[in-house]
Amino acid sequence: MAYVDGYVIPVPKKNLPAYMKMATAASKIFRKHGATQVRECAGDDLDVSWGGVAFPKQMKLKRGETVVFSWVEFRSKADRDRVNKKVMADPAMKKIMPKKNPFDWKRMVYGGFKVGVDA
Questions:
Q1: What is the DSSP letter of 61?
Q2: pTM of the entire structure?
Q3: Which of 70, 83, 58 is nearest to 5 (CA)?
Q4: What is the CB-side half-sphere exposure of residue 35 using CA atoms within 13 A?
Q5: Which of 118, 119, 111, 103 is closest to 66 using CA atoms?
Q6: Were both Cys, which of 7, 10, 34, 67 would link to 43 (CB 3.0–4.6 Å)?
Q7: What is the pLDDT of residues 31-57, one digit of tens each?
Q8: How far is it, in rounded angstroms, from Cα 87 to Cα 69?
Q9: 80 within 8 A of 74, measured Cβ to Cβ
Q10: What is the largest CA-CA distance in the chain?
Q11: Domains and their CATH numbers in the chain
């Protein structure tokens, strides 16, 4: 069964192009080392009122920020561990990092997930 690393990141809207440029380059590195899918999704319809907690409130978005919801899919948790190790050791990762990070790493939410439904 597939395994997914998921991320939720508050990103200033003005930095979204820089973030997506970095994410696009990183996705190629992840795919090169074996990730099966990479998705980077920028918030579009975040002010929902149907019951749960809206992303802006939960993420404590500041004025001018949006949320990026992302995931990287792998064949298994063991494969994720193998791929991530190779990605972090790949010199290309250092080359794609901008001088000024387009988001605050301390506010990123991250975790690994077992896929329960794949429809």
A1: P
A2: 0.91
A3: 70
A4: 22
A5: 103
A6: 67
A7: 999 999 999 999 999 988 777 889 999
A8: 20
A9: yes
A10: 45
A11: 3-45+54-112 (3.30.70.100)
